[in-house]
Amino acid sequence: MLEGDDISRLLDILGNRNRRRIIQLLRQKPCFVTEISDRLMISPKAVIEHLQLMEREQILLSKNDRSRRKYYYLSRDFKVVIDLENIPAALLPEEIAVIDKKNEFFSLLAATNKLLESRDSILSDLEYIERDIDRKISDLKVTGKDILASETEFNLVLALSSCEMTLGDLEEFSGIDLTELSGVLDGLAAKGIVKRTGEYYKVCDIYAE
Question: Transmembrane ranges (predicted)?
Fold first, then answer.
């Protein structure tokens, strides 16, 4: 049975809502840092700090698996019984409510920061893809300058390379009058670049037999 300073230290540890949530999760099964972070929506840095504190107090133990990933588990299960007749209340209910609300705020703040970091990473990837697309389009224009007669032909071929489109679709896409548009498409068909199947136009498959 714990007494004196040991009890005070344990209560200090369990006074943190996120540490209590981590203990509750580890009651179910041992977990890696990433599992705890993802399940509880707490930043990995905060999870590591909580785990290290509880490991120092021997509430938790850790082991490395075959991949040398460290997972944590409870050293022993326990419960805390507080005798209100013998131990005076340290905090008023409204003070506990404020602490819980503050812990919830910081938990949400960490989760929001994690989402913001994910968004920044995605935006960075999108920026790279956009630059790559611009380079490829420039290469296409250079390669097709002796094949395509105009920017209009290039734009139509580029649009038809991703999907089949009707004349009406192409009119809406390009903003070109139907008569002029039909002439451009006929010219592309004559070059063997575009073909019409029923109502739909598409880029020719150069590998088709």
Answer: none
Are residues 104 and 11 part of one domain? yes
- The answer to whether the CB of 176 falls within 8 A of the CB of 184 is yes
Total of domains in the chain: 2
d(CA 28, CA 89): 31
The structure's pTM equals: 0.44
Report how far apart the first and last C-alpha atoms of the chain are (Å, whole number).
Answer: 84
Evaluate whether residue 122 is within a structural domain: no
- pLDDT tens digits in sequence order for the chain, 209 residues long: 455 567 777 778 888 889 999 998 898 889 999 889 888 888 888 999 999 999 988 889 999 888 788 889 988 766 666 555 554 556 677 777 888 888 888 888 888 888 888 888 888 888 888 888 889 989 988 988 888 888 888 988 988 888 899 999 888 888 888 899 999 999 999 999 999 999 999 998 754 44
Please check whether residues 106 and 150 belong to one and the same domain: no
